[in-house]
Amino acid sequence: MIMKRILFFTLLICLSGATGFAQPTDTLNLLPRPLSTKISAGRFNFTADFNIGINGPESGKFIAAVNRFYLQLGRRVNINFSQEFISAADNDANARLYVTYNKAIAPAIGMDESYSLKVNPDKIIISAATDIGAERALETLYQLISPDKNGFYCPLVEVNDSPRFKWRGLMIDVARHFIPFEVLKRNIDAMAIVKLNVLHLHLSDDEGFRVESKVFPLLQQKGSNGYYYTQDQIRELVGYAHDRGIIVVPEFDLPGHCSSILAAYPYLASYPSDYKPGQRYKLDSIKNLNLGKIMQLISSMPTPTIDPTKESTYTFFDKFIKEMSGLFTDPYFHAGADENNGVAWKQNTDIAAFMQNKGMKNTDELQAYFVKRMYDIAKKYNKRLIGWEEAFNQAIPQDVIVQKWKPSGIGPTLNTGEVVQHGNQVIISAGYYLDLFMPAYIHYQTDPVPADLNQADAAKGILGGEAAQWSELMDGNNEEIRVWPRAAAIAERFWSPANVNDVDDMYRRLWATDFDLNERAINESFAYQKVLSLWVNDVDLGPVRTLADVCTPVKGYKRLMGGMFANGKGRTNPTSPLVNIADMAHSDSETGWYFRQSVAAYLKSHNDADLQAVKYQLQKWQNNKARFDAVSGYAPYPRQISDLSDNLSAAAAIGLQALSGEGNKDNQLKQLQQMVKPLHEVQIAILPGIEALISGTLKPEPASYPMF
Amino acid sequence: MIMKRILFFTLLICLSGATGFAQPTDTLNLLPRPLSTKISAGRFNFTADFNIGINGPESGKFIAAVNRFYLQLGRRVNINFSQEFISAADNDANARLYVTYNKAIAPAIGMDESYSLKVNPDKIIISAATDIGAERALETLYQLISPDKNGFYCPLVEVNDSPRFKWRGLMIDVARHFIPFEVLKRNIDAMAIVKLNVLHLHLSDDEGFRVESKVFPLLQQKGSNGYYYTQDQIRELVGYAHDRGIIVVPEFDLPGHCSSILAAYPYLASYPSDYKPGQRYKLDSIKNLNLGKIMQLISSMPTPTIDPTKESTYTFFDKFIKEMSGLFTDPYFHAGADENNGVAWKQNTDIAAFMQNKGMKNTDELQAYFVKRMYDIAKKYNKRLIGWEEAFNQAIPQDVIVQKWKPSGIGPTLNTGEVVQHGNQVIISAGYYLDLFMPAYIHYQTDPVPADLNQADAAKGILGGEAAQWSELMDGNNEEIRVWPRAAAIAERFWSPANVNDVDDMYRRLWATDFDLNERAINESFAYQKVLSLWVNDVDLGPVRTLADVCTPVKGYKRLMGGMFANGKGRTNPTSPLVNIADMAHSDSETGWYFRQSVAAYLKSHNDADLQAVKYQLQKWQNNKARFDAVSGYAPYPRQISDLSDNLSAAAAIGLQALSGEGNKDNQLKQLQQMVKPLHEVQIAILPGIEALISGTLKPEPASYPMF
Hints:
By secondary structure, the first copy, chain A, is α/β, with parallel strands linked by helices.
């Protein structure tokens, strides 16, 4: 993010050290990496006579895209180009950038997104089968723009590219905490940059219903805290996404996860209650229980659930899906179907009788019945039904799309092979849950195709994948910090060949992409600075930033469990402030990554330049305590996390000791071990590097992290 | 803005100097300053049991406002309050914050915005006549929130407040460069914070037409480069403004400034031409002319102008105003009427014949006829007509509102007294043109009431004022830098009593308000950092920021004239990049202001702490050259402005010399004088402070600056 590389480059500048790996232009910054790239010597220089010609059938969205590109390019290279703006009439084949496409299409799963891009010394040529392929090419071209002291240029390359998977999605939960409309638009801009093509919106859950319904207005009136998207906004959003070659898939989570819907229309419920939007588990009293006990309670408690046995239920959802189908014009409808434990159904004698009459052996079969009914309604309105993995059952139709999500290790998960054998297609989200606070490489190393699936089944059955960000611990203010830049690493996994999997190279490109994302799409960097500035009441941001930059939130479900069950009113409520260090810290520490590279370089070379680079950084951290303490009087938060600041300083001091060969190694390691324990729900990311300075060996990053 | 105070506080922390004026909480940060404020010892502490009760008639917008306040407050003080959110049913008179209002109203000019606010040790009470008054009170309360190391609190105060003027506007030109929808929303948020109540949108000009018309769709299709607001967006925007007690006034500039309209419907024109949206003066060839000659040419050239003699013109505008009246629901319609030199009319023989038939002596009378016809149409649709000062003529109806804009010193300007005598009301924008790059104090010291107007006429005739920001040199990326925080100083001029006019105290509060604006409303600080990061390709931002922070754009119309007439394709076109230092530099240098305070303190005290504070800053600037040069290789822009960087360093060196009593004073002053000359359209703001270190006397800031 903006300014994060400062520290590192300041260091390079100060030391004139030759650590080698930090040259920003030593290789291309393309992310996702294209199918094939050939680099030649030389460059295409941007000059005032740069212009664009287009050869292809009329496409309003492509004209808009090329003008966006043109404006952003002019701004980036700071040249007032002579062409005013680009219209369909600008078809000069001699233009410096000449774009040809054969067909203008609407975005759809399976569309042709391929393109070729050739940068010659005096001319750039893009060819694509479709206007959307040409849009993808413009994004690649933008990522090639490089500056040096003389000006901006593109290296000479020939790119041939097309995606590995058809479905490359990002799911955002806008229900638990509402995500403002303009934040969604910024996410769409970012998705386009990294070539994602499906925005999946989780629009309803226990905590809130987030779309205006004119047929059932109580849904937003009683089912939300006043925050929802108007129908005008949805239309604008869908158009905005389509212009960028992205489809929008709405999800309304049923038959469980529906307190907000039942608050509006309680007659849909499986049992009578005073329904209100809010957390479905009110487990304040069990905060001292262990995980097993909590899981047991959760699986045995009735939760707000739609009654699937009444015809009035389907009359309601027929009208509702009809209305939503008019708003969300892409041919998919996601009906949720996850985490229904069936207890509410078992406890209702009418429902039990219904099951008996129909010869259903268990609530799974009743759920399959519900899914089939929803499938029929969706089909009536030309939508293909999608459900989370619990929607799968041998009884469901073959053209239901199944979304795999459950992490391995906590109960049974979907057998992808079985689903594909049954004839259904699968979207993989297991391994891509951004809300687990895992570093990007964990997701990056997860292939969407399960290892045990044969090639033919994979080609037929794996539609693609989706990064998913649930919003118990996310709101409009930190959504961009949570999703980006990690979603870009996952985007590469979905677009690029499986053998593009060098983690260090991915990270190098990820930081460059993050800068671009902040320049052209998202406000991640600003969101972070804003809250850190609040911590110190606009007095010196530096020391709190130095601390927060090397912290990462505890991984897995630990924060969520703490947030839901502790503190009386859980932190995961829609109105809880999310402005602590664990809410702001990135799941990857960029500074931590650069430090790790420094340590690795030093341990390999043992030369003085690399030593000085490591030392410079450690001294800065060691000295940060004094600076941190100096700002601690201006507002209460720094004092609350001063133990963390003290640890950073102490850890750096140990590192410096180790570098100078002082102290007892065992004691040093023991002291360091004390600091690994999370404080304030974060961990210090540089500890493994310091440990390596003591032991002389940098351990590889863990291949996985525990969920709890 | 965020991080701008860092430098200064770092300095304080480093030196533990007691310069006295920088304590962030030494007085309240209220801006605009209320009519009356009584402070007592003690404080109201924010704790988890904070809650809100409301007593007043149903008001959806107030419920929304109070929930926005509540969410922002929770986030600011980082407390998870026990109240979930506030509904109309929350009417507990024992709540920690209790709000009473008597009437729910729609925003309107002349509405009752008064309120009282009393902060007791354990309870805050707001009373207002209207829900909008109560909204104003919430903004005041938010500005009272203060932190120290123990927590957040409000000082005990009793505020009684109401505005001096009814009309407190901000005009944004969205025509020349399009300003994105979300940027407008952020401006509305900022306006609400400083209690402005009119958003005036300049929606059409030669360069573009920016609203979707369904009746005349060519207006946006041929009259823009594809960027305009949809009708859905306008409806959303007006609702968004109304929720915040702000009305929206649309302006469509007629009969001149209309190339974009004529590009769509050329039959409306006074002469045939191939009309296209774009600059109306194509004066590339005259770039070497002096100002007088340019002015003479401008006044003698025919420019795109509506034909006011044809009935078809009024048929068109009847339909158009009818359509726009449905979108912009507030009862005002601004028809422009500025800068029509009449040449196009004089040259058309049919128009000349029409004038003769009607016995009109000059084109001013024809313009008055046009204004009267527009007035009649506006009235038909229940809108009151507004026009720029050229709309005034003894023949126009008394209920036309006249907006005064012309700066004194370049030709005749409106005689406000004459207008008021005639019975018309006046909105003052002369003195509040933000696009002139003047520092805030210049606007702040301009009273809306002309000195020669008697009190009775002023009370009757001066409706209020409007800050105005034209967009020849502004786009969506720097709009917030251009408008904020200066518009906040003008907002105080319109709200607070005339005798609230201490410039230093205004600036102190302005910097605090700017922080709040960036936290809750605008992205000004991020917009600035984004472009500076581009200059150095995401390598160390520090040295370019140190330079840009002390630069201010050249004042008056100098940049505009250069931008319109130089460079072949003028920089003021809608697609020109605006990313140079003059586009980014603020019209007030906050760092420069703090330095000036430091110098003043030192010249008064001559003590060592104050000396060290000045020295610390000068050394930083002196050393900045080396840091700046070090980042100059990463992208081309720093090298382009390295002469400016050299000057900053050299000026600081002179200051340090002077402090240590070395060197020849005359030579030093002479050297400094060389640096006053603008480079790259900016000036270095700290030169007067350095001059004072040489001469021993800090000259007062100029009372005015030349326009050209």
